[in-house]
Specification:
The complex is a heterodimer. Helices cover about 25% and strands about 30% of the residues of chain A. By secondary structure, chain A is of the alpha+beta class. Chain A folds into 2 domains: about 5-40 and about 145-220 and about 325-385, FAD/NAD(P)-binding domain (3-Layer(bba) Sandwich), CATH 3.50.50; about 85-140 and about 220-310, 2-Layer Sandwich (D-Amino Acid Oxidase, Chain A, domain 2). In chain A, the strands form 4 sheets. An 8-stranded mixed sheet of chain A has the order 6-7-5-15-16-17-14-18. Chain B folds into 2 domains: about 5-105, Ubiquitin-like (UB roll) (Roll), CATH 3.10.20; about 110-125 and about 160-255, Alpha-helical ferredoxin (Fumarate Reductase Iron-sulfur Protein, Chain B, domain 2). In chain B, the strands form 4 sheets. Chain B has a 5-stranded mixed sheet with strand order 2-1-5-3-4. In chain B, strands 6-7 form a two-stranded antiparallel sheet. In chain B, α6 (about 185-195) runs antiparallel to α7 and α7 (about 200-210) packs across α9 (about 235-255). Chain B is globular. The chains are: A alpha+beta, B alpha+beta. At the A-B interface, β4, α4, α5, α7 and β18 of A face α1, α3, β10 and β11 of B.
Chain lengths: ~375, ~260
């Protein structure tokens, strides 16, 4: 008898990592993605490999998850990360007053953090605001989201998975109260077809609600965009964060030859249509200059807005929603054969995949354990073969 | 940045293998400051989900959205709609040359990536000793400042300038004439890897590859790659430098005889 077949909807970071995990456990996997790999939220994310420092006071569950996952990613994809660390910088008295709570939060969450003399910080980051009052170093990093997803998918393909890009899910196929596959339109061939599945994993990020709605289900995933402004040159080597609670425009992530200022946060209905509010761009440039005054002398290369898939837990302010993830087995809603994995960060996508694959394997009575923590990924370049 | 939105026309090459290619017209309302990729995203979201184009980061780091805009190879994510419309209206959008077309604007990069693999180029490199780092051939906006890293912190790294977008392959006349040519990006990759590696065996192997059948001698020195590279990698300059290294190694051998 052949192995069970799982269809994963979405080739962003979550779907890519889930396909990799399931393929490693010996399942047959087909990924369907309506566009290119990482053409949705994952591609346009801030590229920050979180140490967890950003959440160590306000969301310690996410912070612990981040530091654990960053260490694992360092082992399984070391060649495609910039690991230059990050600084949390105090610019005023309230920031300074936050420092003790920050250090305590880092210690509680197991995030290595140390205060470095401000003169040392300014030598390392010569464009940092010279009026900075304190700097704490943490092991933040940077990735390139497209290559991040390609590396997971290339490894999944090496283990037998099939990845169908430009293939959109039009409906979930059900028999009684069980999902038995997906009806897709393949835009390469123009042909519609049904792909049978023992289980369908909904890894559609902020579009997860649209997939669930095909089975008349609701998932508490709120598309919550943020604006990021990419500058025309690289002004910093380390990730520069404001030493305070997470807020708008308080982080500059360097990447390749750019510096990316982020971000804001609001809620939209349709993640396919996100007009960029011009005042958000102005706000990013203004707060970016507080951390790095030279931002004001550099041209903008690109502005992007994309929706995070936040799993809501009935709190009004989107900044207060935990950035951790949830896995929903929809048998709890009376529908078998469908699992939704959503929320989280790109940094935690491997852990999200592990959770989703655990649920899938338990439903299919597949005993194989997760081995993604210790499996180095193959080169992203081997995805296109 | 203003908030005014304008309607702009594009003609986009539509194609599926086995079918006749044709140009299809679209009108799209985009905000001031919008890029060509934003327009394609809007067409896709509001008019036609069957439009195939590659995209991911939207800030010129992933290399996915390289295409021909008004006949010139560019990254759609950093090409302003307003500028493109001024050049030619409707804005014409077509896939890259010299790579097989999968559908519409999507090209198959498998062969290209295989050549990049042969070049041994790794994506992370040692960072420059100074900031800012700028790779788009604009004059440096700021005076360079030295970066001093404490010894116990090791060295800073950054991703390579080459984003493997395929633009240099599309513009290369030698590539158009010759399937076996490694091409500008891979040869530039060989040059970069030889700069970075400390392994003499790897270095010698790569120089032999550059001197081989698909290597630097097939380049017709048109310098189109260097002129078009959005990341100022200067593939043609690197190919010329590899030629010099090959020749000087040969002379060195003659002297030693």
């Amino acid at each position: 008898m052949s192995a069970p077949h799982v269809v994963v909807i979405g080739a962003g970071s979550t779907g890519s990592a889930t396909a990799h995990d399931l393929a490693l456990r010996g399942l047959r996997v087909t990924v369907v993605e309506r566009g290119e790999v990482a053409s949705g939220t994952s591609g346009r994310n801030h590229c920050l490999l979180h140490s967890g420092g950003r959440y160590c006071v306000t969301d310690q569950e996410s912070a612990r998850e981040c530091i654990a996952e960053a260490r694992i990613l360092d082992r399984i994809m070391p060649d495609i990360l910039e690991r230059n660390g990050g600084l949390f910088v105090a610019l005023n008295e309230p920031d300074l007053a936050f420092k003790d709570r920050f250090m305590e939060g880092c210690e509680v969450c197991g995030i290595p953090a140390r205060e470095i003399p401000i003169q040392t910080a300014l030598k390392m980051e010569p464009f940092l605001n010279p009026a900075a009052l304190a700097a704490v170093e943490v092991p933040d990093g940077v990735f390139e989201p497209f290559h991040f997803c390609l590396a997971f998918l290339a490894t999944a393909k090496a283990n037998g998975a099939v990845v169908r890009t430009y293939t959109e899910v039009m409906e979930l196929v059900t028999e009684g109260r069980t999902v038995t596959g997906v009806r897709v339109r393949d835009y390469r061939s123009g042909v519609s077809a049904t792909i049978g599945a023992d289980i369908v994993v909904n890894a559609a990020g902020p579009w997860a609600g649209k997939i669930a709605a095909m089975a008349a289900l609701a998932v508490p995933v709120t598309p919550t965009p943020g604006v990021m402004v990419t500058m025309d040159c690289r002004l910093n080597n380390m990730v520069l964060n404001r030493l305070n609670r997470p807020s708008d425009g308080d982080i500059i992530v360097p990447q390749r030859a750019t510096s990316i200022i982020g971000t804001t946060s609001w809620v939209v209905e349709d993640p396919d249509r996100i007009p960029i509010p011009p005042q958000h761009v102005a706000q990013m440039l203004a707060s970016g200059q507080e951390l790095v005054p030279a931002v004001g002398q550099v041209r903008v290369r690109a502005t992007v807005a994309v929706a995070r898939p936040l799993v809501t837990k009935a709190k009004a302010d989107s900044r207060d929603v935990s950035r951790t993830f949830e896995c929903f087995d929809h048998s709890a809603d009376g529908l078998e054969g469908l699992v939704t994995i959503s929320g989280g960060k790109t940094t935690s996508s491997r852990a999200m995949a592990q959770r989703a694959a655990d649920v899938v394997c338990s439903k299919l009575a597949v005993p194989a354990p997760c081995t993604t923590q210790a499996t180095p990924l193959v080169s992203y370049r081997s995805f296109y073969r | 940045m203003t908030e005014e939105a304008a309607s702009i026309d594009l003609e986009v090459l539509r194609y599926r293998p086995g079918e006749q290619a044709r140009l299809e017209n679209f009108s799209v309302v985009v905000a001031a400051g919008a890029k060509v990729l934003d327009a394609l995203d809007t067409i896709w979201a509001t008019q036609d989900h069957s439009l195939m184009f590659r995209r991911a980061c939207h800030h010129s780091s992933c290399g996915a959205c390289a295409m021909r805009i008004n006949g010139r190879e560019r990254l759609a994510c950093i090409t302003a709609m307003a500028d493109a419309a001024q050049e030619h209206h409707p804005i014409r959008v077509e896939p890259l040359h010299n790579l097989p077309v999968v559908g519409d604007l999507v090209v198959d990069v498998a062969g290209f990536f295989a050549r990049m693999t042969a070049s041994d180029l790794v994506i992370t490199r040692t960072a420059e000793p100074e900031l800012p780092v700028s790779v788009d051939r604009l004059p440096p906006p700021l005076r360079l400042r030295q970066v001093v890293v404490a010894e116990d912190l090791g060295r800073f790294t950054r991703f390579e300038s080459c984003i493997e977008c395929g633009i240099c392959v599309s513009v290369c006349p030698s590539m158009a004439a010759d399937d076996g040519f490694l091409g500008p990006a891979a040869l530039a990759g060989i040059h970069r890897t030889r700069e970075a590696t400390r392994d003499p065996m790897e270095s010698a192997h790569l120089l032999a590859l550059a001197d081989g059948d698909g290597g630097v001698w097939r380049c017709h020195s048109s310098f189109e790659c260097t002129a078009s590279c959005p990341q100022a990698v200067d593939p043609a300059g690197r190919i010329m430098s590899l030629r010099g290294q090959i020749v000087s190694r040969r002379w060195g051998r003659l002297w030693r005889r």
